[in-house]
Amino acid sequence: MNIGIIGGLGPLATAYLMELVINMTKADSDQEHIPMVIYNQPGIPDRTAYILDNTKPNPVPEIVKAGNELKKLGIDTMAMPCITAHYFHSEIEEGIKDVKLINMISCTARYLYEKGVKCVGLTATTGTVKSGLFQRVMEEHGLKVILPDSDDQEKIMDIIYKNVKAGKKVNIEKFYGVSSDLREAGAEVIILGCTELSLIKRDYALPGGYIDAMEVLSREIILAAGKEVRPECSELITK
Length: 239
Hints:
By secondary structure, the protein is an alpha/beta fold. Helix content is 46%, strand content 13%. The strands form 2 sheets. The chain has a 4-stranded parallel sheet with strand order 2-1-3-4, with helices on both faces. Helix 1 packs across helix 11 (213-224), helix 3 (60-71) crosses helix 4 and helix 5 (104-114) packs across helix 11 (213-224).
């Protein structure tokens, strides 16, 4: 099965998703890996900007356009390496029609529930946080969600936009400071709930109690393609 990736949301996260899928797939040769078609469209309007202010350009038409280009190639299972874009998940799926658009947030909630986690801390864009998207899905699975306070949320946005998206080194001490506050508030596991934040796990040896939603998405892509996850990649909560 070919997997389609609606990419460019952002470009680094798209490249990292492909890398994750390759690294996490149980394969002993090139031929055993998963065929993927990536439509990298970085010109799609900013998702957070539109969620916070509907007078800004709407990203949905361009996302749907990218999905339909993938559909022309016969692809019927797709994924988006952008958590904030999942705010529009139903609208996008309806716009493309007759495709399975893997829902990263639902998959993450289900995985945490199955692992017996009761309380999570969320690090994500302000658009994702204010949309209540993560909170609603997590609560449907019986999970309590702890959010950063306003100062910590600003720090997370700085990391996402002024560090990762700007191609600069992450201020890891700032990130650990936010994590500490979330744990003090009761979070057992902290969700890297923005695909730019996934790059922190790639570049730093994070301590125990983190889960990267992008790794959850990669796992779902592998399973959807009928492949197996490497045993060493099957535990997604850091130890």
